Amino acid sequence: MLDVLRPGVLEGLTVCVVGDGAAERERAAALGARVVTVDGDLGDEDAVAVAVGALGPIDVLVVDAGSEFAEAGGGMPGLRRAVDDGWNVVRAVVNAGWIGDGSDEGGSGGGGKVVFLAPIADAGEHANAVGAALENAARTLSVEWARFGVRITAIRPRAGAAPGERAELVAFLASPAGDYFTGCSFYPGAAV
Length: 192
Hints:
Elements: E1 14-18, H1 22-30, E2 34-36, H2 45-55, E3 60-64, H3 65-71, H4 75-98, E4 112-117, H5 127-144, E5 150-155, H6 163-174, E6 184-186
Parallel strand pairs: 1-2, 1-3, 3-4, 4-5, 5-6
Helix pairs in contact: 1-6, 2-4, 3-4, 4-5
């Protein structure tokens, strides 16, 4: 995989990776980002809010729904876990600092970026539905939260997408170049 980003491009940013996201963590750290994670039961909204609050300011949230889907065994349990747990973290991060305190119309949090990582469409029953749900969430929330400077994208890897390819795309979206993308989806890997 060809590196397309200059060294240090993510310096000064805090990237929170939820789920496995090992390649994404490694690439973000290699480009200078501080990488953190949310620990604990992501299904417990209150616990997630406390854990997110303890991390301090987050600039980019990466939700590896593919690993959450796989860890739950796929199917309907995987779909529920990937989508519901991802939403709990997104809501906590956005409310903790991206939309401000609500005292002014535009918010005072300064926004941030969310990158959803869907499972590969053929990763099992309902994997494609997880990807569709995340793509829909990216489109809908990008409109809802645009006034707060929140930019949301989804990555729906195709079969054959290498972890490094996905990680480079996540790093690109986290970088200043990613400021130009919101409400859209990317499909790395071999075309089917």
